[in-house]
Amino acid sequence: MSKFDKKIKRLSKEFQVPETYYQKIDKIIGSIQEDQVVMPKKKPFVKVAAAIAALCILITGFFFFSSAEVAEASFFQTFRQSIMDFFGMGEEESQEMGIESKKEDAVSKPDLMMELQEVVMDTQSIYAVVKITAPPEVEFNKSMIFDYFGFCGGTNYNVSSEVPGTKNCTLLEVMKDKKNVATYVVNVATGEQIEEGKDVTVFFQNLLTGPYEDKPEILVEGMWSISFTAAYTNSKNITVKGTEDMKFSFAGATADIKGIKLLPLGMTVNTDVSRVDDEILRTTDTRFTVTMKMIDGSEVIVSSPDPDADCLAGGGEVSQSEKKGRVYLKYVYQFDKAIDINQVLGITISDYYVPLKEYGG
To answer: How many Å apart are CA 241 and CA 249, to the nearest integer?
Structure first.
């Protein structure tokens, strides 16, 4: 064989092609040489190009002339690589260096379809009803929850613009004939008002089952979001501005009521707690009892530090701020059931009663 043919032979051996392939390659090369017309002497780079072309023919012949079984085995053999090869080391060397890898068998999860049904919101609360359709094999029930959920500003999920406050996600209803279709109510009680006309996004992450077990199962993995424009669907409220005599017992001292805002879905109480020592504020339970006196003579407990009390506000948020040397605590309560604020005669904050008649109640 010529020097050129020997080079091809050597290259083909490096690819570990069975002997039967050599015969076929030799036959192809031989037929090319017989049909070849003697050409003027070429420059060296032409020989290099010819060698590359022959090498391409060799590789192509390797896949097309081989049987399916041999080709498949050879193909997957080239993928017997690991991440250790990426680091330029073998398994034994990696073990000596204390570097190990964990083999993962990832299985894709089916997706969810979401549709925003309705929104109710005021200056401190947002409620969104979302219809969720899962793959047929998923049947919604009360043991399922989303790993993460809430609201944020903008048209996409953005952690930096997430709305703070107490969040809940409650299963409202499962469709009778289609257990993979359900509606959820997502709500948040926040001290930061969402301005009307601004974009708001409700988001969900990872549908789980058995959330309180050691290893909850992820039924559907992913992040989903739906956007809408903020518009107050409830604007009715009673606002009380604090006065100098509005003081109540608090943490062994007294605090001032700076303002009360009552809405059908919740209540906000602003307080000045500057007379209380900072250490006590950090270590003491700062909750106090809030009740509403109704026209029919009954009293409704809004919030209480007593864990056994039947409170109207199941959720809420407490935030602290400082301004001009004064310390303020804002309490945002979210009601479990809507109320008719016209039926409220007054509100008691700890031991101070605030009548609402003069404020429109």
So the answer is: 19
Selection from 306, 119, 343, 105 nearest residue 230 by Cα: 119
The pLDDT score that the predictor gives to residue 171 is 95
pLDDT tens sequence across 289-346: 999 999 999 999 999 999 999 999 987 889 999 999 999 999 999 999 999 999 999 9
Q: Which two tokens stand for residue 208?
A: 């789980």
pLDDT in tens, 136-162: 999 999 999 999 999 999 999 999 999
| pLDDT at site 328 | 96
pLDDT tens-digit profile of 34-57?
A: 545 455 454 444 454 555 555 554
CA quadruple 92, 94, 100, 101: dihedral, nearest 10: -90
Give the residue among 66, 70, 63, 21 at the shortest CA–CA distance from 9: 21
| Spatial distance between the Cα atoms of 98 and 80, rounded to a whole number of angstroms | 22
- What is the rounded distance in angstroms from the CA atom of residue 148 to the CA atom of residue 211? 12
d(Cα 97, Cα 346) in Å, to the nearest integer?
A: 72
Single pTM value for the model: 0.65
Three-class secondary structure assignment of the chain: CCHHHHHHHHHHHHCCCCHHHHHHHHHHHHHHHHHCCCCCCCCHHHHHHHHHHHHHHHHHHHHHHCCHHHHHHHHHHCCCCCHHHHCCCCHHHHHHCCCCCCCCCCCCCCCCEEEEEEEEECCCEEEEEEEEECCCCCCCCCCEEEEEEEEEECCCCCHHHECCCEEEEEEEEECCCCCCEEEEEEEEECCCCCCCCCEEEEEEEEEEECCCCCCCEEEEEEEEEEEEECCCCCCCCEEEECCCCCEEEECCEEEEEEEEEEECCEEEEEEECCCCCHHHHHHCCCCCCEEEEECCCCEEEEECCCCCCCCCEEEEEEEEEEECCEEEEEEEEEECCCCCHHHEEEEEECCEEEECHHHCC
| Chain center to CA of 30 | 65
Mean per-residue pLDDT, 55-72: 48
- Both tokens assigned to 64: 């097309």
Residue in the block written with tokens 């400082």 = 322
